[in-house]
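Any chance you'd type out a single protein's sequence alongside its tokenized fold?
>
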Amino acid sequence: MKHRFIVLLFAALQTTSVLAEDEAFVTSRALSMELANKLAMTAARHCTKMGYQVSVAVTDRSGKLLAFNRNPLSGSHTIDVAILKAATAASFQTPTIDMMKGFEGLKGAPGVLLVGGGVPLRIGGHMYGAIGVSGAPAKKRSGDVDDDCARKGIAAVKEQIEFAQ
């Protein structure tokens, strides 16, 4: 009887792995244009309330721009920096502030920026994209205030995304 159970279990496991390999496509979730803009505006407003003029970029999971907001008083460099921070966080699915140490080999790599302020948007086990904030001065380390603004934006839309699932 024990032997029969093991054989049946092994057969079930083999069938499961075959079924998983036979999938012809995968699905993913994407932010709506409205939610991407809400995320960008919320993060920008948080930084503005602290007295900082920033640019905010929201990308899809592949790092391509979905939404962008820029305070007219922010520096022109913040445009590209915010987009790069978001693209880096989306590509590596890691906050850029956590990549400042241990990823030094990527410094100078095209499309990669190892400065805090890029945060992936991962909610309920799904990767939606990322947000990048640029323009706030650092308090303790480069990009720490930008990172805080990005996380405040995510917190503002997290519940909406969770309930939509």
User: Anything to note?
Assistant: Residues 33-164 form a domain with the Beta-Lactamase fold (CATH 3.30.450.150).
